[in-house]
Amino acid sequence: MIRKQCEVTDSKKIEAILSMTTIGRMASIDSQGYPYITPVNFVYYAGKIYFHCASRGEKLDNIAENPKVCFEVDIPLAYLDAEFTENRSPCNLHQFYHCVIIRGTAAVVPDGLQKVDALNALVAKHEKGTAVGPVRTDMAAYKACRVVEITPVVMTAKSELAQGKSPKVRAALARHFRQRDGAAAANMIRAMGFDADAL
User: Fold this and answer.
1) The pTM is what?
2) Are 3 and 12 in contact (CB under 8 A)?
3) Distance (Å, rounded) from C-alpha 155 to C-alpha 72?
4) CA-to-CA distance for 135 and 142, rounded, in angstroms?
5) Is the same domain home to 9 and 79?
6) Does 22 lie in the same domain as 101?
7) Which residue, of 25, 112, 117, 131, has the fewest CB within 10 Å?
8) Is the domain of 155 the same as that of 172?
9) How do residues 129-139 score in pLDDT, each as one tens digit?
10) What digits encode the pLDDT tens for the residues 15-41?
11) Alpha-carbon gap, residue 191 to 159, rounded angstroms
């Protein structure tokens, strides 16, 4: 990683980024050697990525042929617009974000307890406390779907939060985002280490 100051190595912080979003993208390799990227609803559970899908499809064909995959999530936080940049230079425009990239192996989870646990973890993440009954093995939808497990081999993460800027510039950035975006800037401002209400 070129910008080492942006690298996230703490496993708890990486898990936190993975918990912030419900959509990730898995890249597999098709039979002709082309990357195939598809968005999936996912959960990070027990150290692995899980998602569910139909019983047939290109991604399943691909991982059956080659289980090596790449999985990615990104969370846009704020865009640095020309209003803030020096001389309104297009070279200073920038996007701030969190991201995680996982290289690993994918496999279909067989019917049984692991599949049930993964599906219930997926429901719990997406429903966030809503009263929903558990997934059971006797449900038609359980029998019809497939669950894919991605086992990480290499996991890297990055949080681009203006770490290379001076404290004065970072504070000015936080105030700019607060004035421009109002309450919508709260996630970026907190990630930068500032109190949005104190700006």
Assistant:
1) 0.90
2) no
3) 10
4) 7
5) yes
6) yes
7) 131
8) no
9) 677 888 888 88
10) 999 999 999 999 999 999 999 999 999
11) 9
